Amino acid sequence: MGHRKDMIKLLYKRIIRKFDLSETQLKELRVRLVPENICKGPFIQGEKSCPNTTALAIKEKVSRFKTAGEVKKLMEKYSVKNAQLWAFYVIFDFPAILSERYFKKSLVKMRNALGELIIEKQS
Fold it and tell me: Counting Cβ atoms within 10 Å, is residue 75 exposed (0-12), middle (13-18) or buried (19+)?
């Protein structure tokens, strides 16, 4: 299980780097990556968004997206490949749907990844 956690961190960092968020935006994303705001599965579920969609909303300066179509177009704009999104789905979403503990631990790993990206921005 430990190896898959590192995969989440690496894949999340790879996707987030494509959005080129500022240090302030990365910090905002880190604060918003909590179970109350994040869904497991599709880009948007009710008031919740997936971790990548949340980052995209911050980048685009919108509170949230209304349709998955909007999100898909923007993912393409930032060169986030379908293969990366599918990998994220397999490594994060699917196991998170099955295990709340996995979901919460994965969000911690993603917040840690953002911490590393913030340090990169500072140097």
Answer: buried
